Amino acid sequence: MTKFSDLNLDPKVLKAVEEAGYETPTPIQAGAIPAALEGRDVLGIAQTGTGKTAGFVLPMITLLAKGRARARMPRSLVLCPTRELAAQVAENFDTYTKHLKLTKALLIGGVSFKEQDMLIDRGVDVLIATPGRLLDHFERGKLLLTGVQIMVVDEADRMLDMGFIPDIERIFSLTPFTRQTLFFSATMAPEIERITNTFLSAPAKIEVARQATASETIEQAVVMFKGSRKDRQPTEKREVLRKLIDAEGDKCTNAIVFCNRKTDVDIVAKSLKKYGYDAAPIHGDLDQSQRTRTLDGFREGTLRFLVASDVAARGLDVPAVSHVFNFDVPSHPEDYVHRIGRTGRAGRAGKAIMICVPQDEKNLAAIENLISKAIPRAENPLKSTASDAKPEAEPEERPKRTRAPRSRGGKTREAKSETPREQKPETVEVVEAAAKTEPKSPKPRREERSQEDRQPQGGRDKVVGMGDHMPSFIALSFEDRRTG
């Protein structure tokens, strides 16, 4: 079995690894570290939670152990899609460089430019950044990338999904052509091949797991749910989530609840807190200080439920997450693998439960197609509650009305079965007698027309075609012509 001592790492790096409690590298580490130490470009593909971060941090600090950084010219660059992932890489750097004199700078949003400028001015060996903040420093003239020897793109597929392709291409163009490039990703989407063919030179491809596979230690389930009414579906869906949490009981020590939209993250977190659950939201619109406090509380165990968007789905290392609840079915099948990969890490058992409404069944089918297996269906917790209620009484069936056929003139045509020949003579006689005895009521007139209206001036009768209400001035004009 391969050990870290067999990978030709710097002795001071090995000492830090041993102090961290690691002896045996993961498959991605065992494949990527030797190739990186040889100076080759690396394309690493492995499912989340397999130690990709150490797979590039350990060889990078070994190669940088000798040398000195110059002001505003970092020697290496690590690009991360999110602030949290960048902060996690910085923590790994601190862990493994405790016996080396290497410096770092973390460039992320939500932090003062002044503090970051001071670090860059001193000169750093490792620059860890998100693409947007890195380009901000470059455009302000505070940073030069011509001295980059090693460039790492972590969670490359996520970078592309988040629309960082133009930024990544621009950053690559600002670095030397002779740099060493390390690409690490959980999935290998077709569009990534164009990037790798453009910016990587004969890379060593290390793929330790089938693309987009979930860990076998994770128990998966999906609840098929449909609201009683369309306007009540979101409320009832949140009730389903609470009942699923209650059903797990003490086995659910902590959990991440994933939503597709940031607005839903806030709503679900507020709903859980309202019903007594210890929950807090985390997404890209929150302040960095608040995101850091929330994530630290979840890692330390003071926060039980973390309601998150996909910003927390990639790369965040929280070792002991017992459950993952997908409040929404992810629109991209790959995101499902990354979400449930937050549990069942490092060989631990985990459970992932998803709620699927009718409009998300298409996305569910895409997920099952990606992972090449059907997700077991779980019972809807609201179904038993609905079955206990008394069913509403069905309304009595009303007799159907038969509409008589009408002729073109609008008069009702008599059906053949009701012809006058078939009517009984007694009925006809009674109807005729009733018609004779009942006096006819005269039709009420709206108003009595005056004699002046009925007879035009000059004693003439009304003009044919003009009606009963011919204006008097017309009659006068006719009278003048006759007499003249």
Summarize this structure as a short list of keywords or feature phrases:
14 strands, 484 residues, Rossmann fold, globular, alpha/beta, 13% strand, seven-stranded parallel beta sheet, 2 domains
Give a quick summary of the entry.
This protein is an alpha/beta fold and 484 residues long. Helix content is 39%, strand content 13%.
CATH architecture of the largest domain: 3-Layer(aba) Sandwich
Give the helix/strand class.
alpha/beta
Percent of sequence in beta strands: 5-15%
For the biggest sheet, the summary is:
7 strands, parallel
Describe this structure in words.
With 484 residues, this protein is an alpha/beta fold. It folds into 2 domains: 4-207, P-loop containing nucleotide triphosphate hydrolases (Rossmann fold, 3-Layer(aba) Sandwich); 218-388, Rossmann fold (3-Layer(aba) Sandwich). Helices cover 39% and strands 13% of the residues. The protein has a 7-stranded parallel beta sheet. It has a 7-stranded parallel beta sheet with strand order 10-11-9-12-13-8-14, with helices on both faces. Strand 3, helix 5 and strand 4 (126-129) form a beta-alpha-beta unit. Helix 2 packs parallel to helix 3, helix 3 crosses helix 4 (83-96) and helix 13 packs across helix 14 (361-371). The radius of gyration is 40 Å and the shape is globular.
